[in-house]
Amino acid sequence: MAIASINPATGEMLQRFEPLAEAEIASKLNQAQQAFEQYRRTSMVQRAEWLNKAAEILEGDRQRFGKIITLEMGKTLKSAIAEVEKSALGCRYYADNAAQFLADVAIATDASHSFVRYQPLGAILAVMPWNFPFWQVFRFAAPALMAGNVGLLKHASNVPQSALAIEDIFLQAGFPEGVFQTLLVGAAEVANLIADDRVKAATLTGSEPAGISLAVAASKQIKKTVLELGGSDPYIVLESADLEAAVSTAIAARTMNNGQSCIAAKRFIVVEAIADEFEKRLISHFEALKVGNPMEPDTDIGPLATPSILQELDAQVQVAIQQGAKLLTGGKHLKDRPGNFYLPTILADLPIHSPTAQEEFFGPVALLFRVANIDEAIALANDIPFGLGASAWTNITAERDRLIDEIEAGAVFINGLVKSDPRLPFGGIKRSGYGRELGIQGIHEFVNIKTIWVK
Ligand code: NAP
């Protein structure tokens, strides 16, 4: 895959980049190692000052960064700007809280003095996806750098301008050279990077095959990994739910980021008693969405990020129909215009054990299922290899408690949209991955949890 920015709304090649040569990679790894030796000795106060400055740069230049994101991967400009703002929020959160999260923890034992100290590991490789090209990187980098690690970014090959802009933000913010570097390399280089002694651990957000390949390479070197992979999250609506709120949130939950979000609701599981009404309103909301130029303020859904994502999604929809799903709306690539535009789509009654029902649809396609009651809803929600974030709607306390306890997922949101928040841990179970980002848990992933015992 070439490293290039291609506008998904027009197909226009914006800029192409040469991947780094072997010698250039080696020199950047050396630089990371040398930078770490100095950087690990900097104070928390100093790191926080730099990270707050990074937040200021993000906020001050949100329009320009938002445009880069939209031009490279097609999300609407308003959501791209919101992503830049959220990245700033993530920086400020860790600038404010890291010292407390990483303070020594005293533990009484038979020693005169025993405690836990958190220390950095060194260079951490981040293999990142294109769907949130800024936020995914900052939610890795803010805690990693506050902990005293240095970062190496291998970004998705279709967002190189975002990757370079982020490197520049850290430099402009004052972080020393080598503390955060972008490596313009292809996926084939990742196994070599993780095998290198100068790289101490890795995090990957992306597809299952990419996660498996990184984890296998890392395991050969006994190096820690965090994996944030795909999902096919349930969105359960029970009879007592506020139906209008559930429907309008369902639209955002499925179509945010042009439908290309790991935590988007993908399987809508609705009890029979309200299913007709839910379906009717969902169709009418989907059909009212404006698909078009992501730079326009009134556009709801822009193009998918690449032609191959569009082809894969359309093929999945066609297979689902062959396997028995009913097409309620959409199901079409907009071929009358350039770009990767796909109509928001609803498929109903896909047989639960058909192969496509077990897959992730990475685009604006909702799968609608009807169930008799909460037991069937929970069983269906869990009948999937993934477990990222579930949304469930009810106004009955006993039902809420069951949903919280019984759904197999890294997060359960009751009467709300699943979203990431710097204050809350984020991650999955089952084939959605392992480890956590964000919150206090996120900053503890890439540190040596050192036990100290003094007599
Ligand atoms: P992807 O193809 O796996 O790409 C993600 C990153 O992995 C890119 O940097 C890519 O580089 C790299 N990569 C691809 N194949 C690799 C390999 N064999 N070894 C090492 N690195 C490899 O994923 P995507 O299609 O861009 O992203 C969509 C997926 O990410 C969806 O499944 C989505 O649910 C998941 N996702 C998960 C989260 C989460 O937090 N759980 C968040 C966002 C997205 P190249 O671009 O150079 O190929």
Explain this structure.
It is built from 14 helices and 20 strands. The chain has helices at 22-39, 44-60, 62-73, 77-101, 135-146, 160-173, 190-195, 208-220, 243-255, 272-288, 307-322, 374-382, 397-406, 439-443; strands spanning 3-6, 13-17, 105-106, 113-120, 123-127, 150-154, 180-182, 199-205, 224-228, 233-237, 265-271, 326-329, 345-348, 365-371, 386-387, 389-393, 411-414, 429-430, 433-434, 447-454. A 7-stranded mixed sheet has the order 12-13-14-11-10-16-17, with helices on both faces. It has a 6-stranded mixed sheet with strand order 7-6-5-8-9-19, with helices on both faces. The model has no long low-confidence stretch (mean pLDDT 98). The protein is 41% helix and 21% strand. Bound molecules: NADP nicotinamide-adenine-dinucleotide phosphate (NAP). Residues 1, 127-131, 154-157, 186-187, 190, 205-207, 209-210, 213-214, 228-231, 262, 360, 362, 388, 428, 433 line the site of NADP nicotinamide-adenine-dinucleotide phosphate. NADP nicotinamide-adenine-dinucleotide phosphate binds at residues 1, 127-131, 154-157, 186-187, 190, 205-207, 209-210, 213-214, 228-231, 262, 360, 362, 388, 428, 433.
